[in-house]
Amino acid sequence: MEPSAPDSRHQRIAELRKSRQRSWFLRVSLLVAAGLAAWAWAVGDIYQSVLTPEQRRANLGRFLKKVTPAPVRESGDWSDFTPWALQMLGEGEGLRAIGSTFALATAAAALSGFFALLFLPAAARNLATPRPLGLAGGGGPLAKSLCVVLNKLTRTLFVFTRSLPEYILGFLLISVLGPDPWALVLALAIHNFGILGRLGAEVVENAPPEPARTVIAHGGGRLGAYLAALLPESFNRMVVYFFYRWETCVREATVLGMLGVVSLGYFISQAKAGRAFDEMLFYVLLGAVIVLAGDLLSAVVRRWLRFERA
Q1: Which residues of the chain have pLDDT under 50?
Q2: CB 254 within 8 Å of CB 102
Q3: Is 306 helix (H, G, I), strand (E, B) or coil?
Q4: For 208, what's the count of Cα atoms within 13 Å in the CB-facing half-sphere?
Q5: Which residue among 90, 211, 268, 310 is buried most deeply as judged by most CB within 10 Å?
């Protein structure tokens, strides 16, 4: 009697499980990682507190009281919040902080995106190769060798720049340039150049190759194939990555402002120094508002691009 369809399917699944490859290296690695985590927790100083639960609850209560806006804290009436918030935006430099943070993040994202686009033809493995997109005619032996070397150097540059932390770069550049906004712009741009370059190279490598092959077959060359076929095909995805990194730049510009350059981070550090936790929370929420506005703008731009392509 032949097995029924469900039984046959279960039998095939069981046979596949038995015949699948097993990686002992992966299993041992997981066991070692779990053992190291347990050992670090047992012998390390991950969690040590000299505060009792009552003291922690008291600290939490004081913190929640201090983050309540001062007028509301004094009157107990939340209708006093709106005048206080408007005053923080105007006299409290809130609008200036928003503008400076937005400008820092936008300048950094624009610089990193622009230079990443310039370097993409050299970073994409399907272009900077002796046989671009699998086609012959990539130039002479010297040109082919140069393409390979340039590809390795460009990808190494992407790895190197994205491995440099923005905060450390900002600190070093401020030491050289002084508390100048361009120090933070360059710090953010250098780091995000490597990230956008790597992401953009992968997008170009995964783009449909047929239009680009047609360009190369008609003598357009690697750069022509990139500009005429691969870049337009990949542009929507690159816009997504650009706005993703722009949102990150907004958050990082907020933090980097603590180095002394005027941004939301500068005003947050000033409020913290004065123990004005209500003002500090207000500036933190302003940073979240900028990120939400950027996400909305990103959605509008992507929808417009899809509409134009359709």
Answers
A1: 1
A2: no
A3: helix
A4: 8
A5: 268
